[in-house]
Amino acid sequence: MMSILNALVYLILAPVLGGLVAGIDRKITARMQGRVGPPILQPFYDVAKLFEKEDVTVTPSQNYYILSYLVFMAVTGALFFAGGDMLLVIFAFTLAHVFIVLGAYAAYSPYSYLGAERELIALMAYEPMIILTAVGLYLVTGSFYVSDIAASTVPVILYLPGVFLGFLTVLTIKLRKSPFDISTSHHAHQELVKGLTTEFSGATLGKIEIAHWYETVVMLGIVYLFFGFNPLLAIIVIALVYLLEIFIDNTFSRMKWEMTMKSGWGAAAILGFLNLAVLYYFYLGV
Amino acid sequence: MAYLKKSPWLLHYDASSCNGCDIEVLACLTPLYDVERFGIINTGNPKHADVLVITGGINELNRQVVRNIYNQMPEPRVVVAVGICASSGGVFRECYNIAGGVDQVIPVDVYVPGCAARPESIIDGIVQALGILEEKRTKMKEQEAQR
């Protein structure tokens, strides 16, 4: 019962929270660049405006794909906050991204195609590390269920520092922050036009934005799992992690896709596997 | 419910400008003028844009390009002609390859004078355009209601 309630609270509150995080992100980014910056509620204004615009659709199917993206992103988070199976969460998460890639492929445009291909590369880059995160959490807490992991009193971070650092690396890819924003080119608008979202406008683009807010909350929720033994510490760490992401966003230029692959797989191979091997040898192996 | 005014995304197109007005448009986005504090974002995509900012006179080569960009923008949309060349052709008016101001090709809502137009007057022009954008939205809503 409690878990269904949690999921409902997530479904309602996550867009609000995600939008606020995006607004604070833009404000802090502006301050780092010595500007005043937009109001904190700016992301909400943007999305509200997008829903006011005329609907321009290239292919009708693209709108269904984007709706599926939003729905599956919400399902991912609902599963996560209901305390569901971590592996199922990752599966739904990947499925959501497959839908946005299909949406971009459905709209016949070279920019959209390039964005979709780069999104697939990003998907390939971060997926191993996310699965290793779930495996690491399982090794330490003995359960794949998010509710068990979050309730665990074991200081997970002490056993999984490498996995945590690896997860931070892929978090940058996931939040579409600067060195790895290859598929949407968040700041450089002229290179890819807007990558994945080139052919989406109006309400459809608004849905992508809302799905991204859901996604942000889920990703920060996974950060919470590493510090589940002390909720206060966890919230402080989440704030610090996000600040770090903004800092990285502002100090790095965008890199090529090879770098994304190397970073994602490198983090998985070196930080993730090494951490798990050490853990397996000393902690579990007798 | 007028969110359009709070988050205008603009698309900047250089139609044979001398680059004078272009750098002034970009100057508006720098920390000194920081138009992002009004929610203005410079997009590179006509499908995301609400305001089309054009600098320079239209020549025969980019006539189609400008029309194409304009047609790709979803309603409601406004066009701001920045600088004297975009307004009337300026000193290039008599050249054989110049069609004249932007209004020879697409309807223009706001003219920003100057050579080069100052960032202050560009911002002023965009703010005026936002009022027109809002009017267009109300008109669009009425038309939808009638249908």
Largest sheet of chain B: 5 strands, parallel
The helix count of chain A comes to 12
* Number of structural domains of chain A: 1
Spatial sequence of strands, sheet with the most strands of chain B: 2-1-3-5-7
Overall, the morphology of chain A is: globular
The radius of gyration computed from the alpha-carbon positions of chain A, rounded to a whole number of angstroms, is 19 Å
Description:
The complex is a heterodimer of chains A (286) and B (147). Chain A has helices spanning 2-32, 42-52, 60-81, 86-106, 110-141, 146-151, 156-159, 161-174, 189-192, 202-226, 231-251, 257-284. Chain A has 286 residues and is an all-alpha fold. Chain A has one domain (1-284). Chain B is an alpha/beta fold and 147 residues long. Chain B is 35% helix and 18% strand. Chain B is built from 4 helices and 7 strands. In chain B, helix 1 links the parallel strand 1 and strand 2. Chain B is globular, with a radius of gyration of 15 Å. Chain B starts with 8 loop residues before the first strand and ends with a helix. The model of chain B has no long low-confidence stretch (mean pLDDT 88). The chains are: A mainly alpha (286), B alpha/beta (147). The A-B interface holds A 26, 30, 33-39, 42, 45-46, 48-49, 52-56, 189-190, 193-194, 197-202, 205 and B 1, 3-4, 6-7, 31, 34, 36-39, 42-45, 47-48, 50, 72, 74-76, 137, 140.
